Amino acid sequence: MDAYTVPLDPETELYCTIYLFAYVQNIDEVRLKVLNGELSCAVVKAALVVDVFQILVAANKAAVNEKMKQLTTKSLYTELLYNLSMSKNISRSLIEFGINDRDKNIVVAQIHKINDEKSLSQPLLDSVKGERIAISRLSEFSDHDLIRKMYKIDDDELTVSNLADSVVSRISCKECILLK
User: Model pTM?
Assistant: First the structure.
């Protein structure tokens, strides 16, 4: 169950490491540690993630925006959550994709320099009281109906595309799309 680590845009010199946790028993504690800055990560509702590429696209946009000093939000990790959402309302984006006390299955993303991975991941792994699951099992925790609703994806679109591609397209083009 190794973490899934991928390099982001080479200009940023950053990497993204993604974990999947199920049956988390201390979600309120994890959320508090993220809000207090004790954990450097973005924590996302697993039900809203159809594919790991969705997280990577949002993370890459966040890293590039930070490098260009063009963050829409106040931090790299809130920017990642904001990028996942179709909403241009920051608060709404953070509420929709961030975790709440009822969530039990979460995806955690850390953006880091290559040499910082271990020092960042250890506090996270020590803090989350849940089952660490292989990221390849992510689809078991995805709620496709909820994802389709959040991203406004209809049946017709899915005849020419798959759900993951439709979601990633929306994330990639968020700035260009006129929301209904």
Answer: 0.92
